[in-house]
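User: I'll paste a sequence; please echo it back and then give the predicted structure.

Assistant: Echoing your sequence first, then the prediction.
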Amino acid sequence: MFDSTNQEAVCPVHAPSDHPHVKPAKVGILLANLGTPDATDYWSMRRYLGEFLSDKRVVDYSAWLWQPLLQLVILTKRPFSSGAAYKSIWNEEANESPLLTITKQQTAGIKDRMQSRYGDRVMVDYCMRYGNPSTKSKVREMVEAGCQKIIFFPLYPHYAGATSATANDQLFRALMEEKWQPSVRTVPAYFEEPAYIDALAQSIERAYADAEKRPDILVCSYHGVPKRYLMEGDPYHCQCQKTTRLLKERLGWSDTEITTTFQSRFGPEEWLQPYTVEEVARLAEKGKKNIAVCAPAFSADCIETLEEINEEIKESFEEAGGRDFLYIPCLNDDDAHLSALGGIIEDNLAGWLD
């Protein structure tokens, strides 16, 4: 595989001999995901949670009110419970979180696709909004490698201020420190992209075909946000609802075979409803004893899917009388998913590369 960082820098044509050497121009493709702690110990978790929960896009309360609570209470206790949760799903062989493992696999797949088409004109890499590798470090590497243009791709199918926007914010902060800023394009949400919907549908069709008994209903569980965000103009809720509708239409199902819920509620205020953990219990109580759950808002399996859905939400369903609980994994590095992402990247390269 071609390593686009190894091209030699040269003195520009017609420039004096003492002019700084410049790498051949190329386009960077930078994939971005949420982030991961470096380890499951207390201090690694505290650093990660501190960065995450100090982001005003994530928790927008006044700093004078929020920071004392965060620093003195939440970050004193939560690293222990979060560390235990991460430890239950940790990739021990690679000593990293599943999100990091999968993001590396996705990046490798996208790199193969992009470099087979564009060769040494592109450089493909990934970064994390919180934790490592940081957005700043990867922007720096791309600029040093000669990337005069960058496609920045937050790996969130649906736009939300707490996901896509904060990823873009971090990119813009990194650009502020560059002497020679590259031109950038940020990839918009792809919640209704036909290839993405088709990849989702294919994964569900495979899971249903392999199931011993067809589930009574498919629960599409999306990460929640405070309801207030919707009322303030965040389009996330509407985009999630549309993904479920498009998925239902692609599968040819009725309204009774699929539903939308929201998980991962945090704090005292009302979040988008229905809450997944409560809805799966209601479904069991209403006689839906065999359900499947998927997480369309996540491009890669992570703590919210492998631990929260597969453990906490499953437990809520079973305690309410449910029998069969099928978790359908995220698209991860599935070929149809990588093809969909590759197509989106190519659309966003229009005018930059032939």
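The longest helix spans residues 63-89. The domain at 194-327 is CATH 3.40.50.1400 (Rossmann fold).
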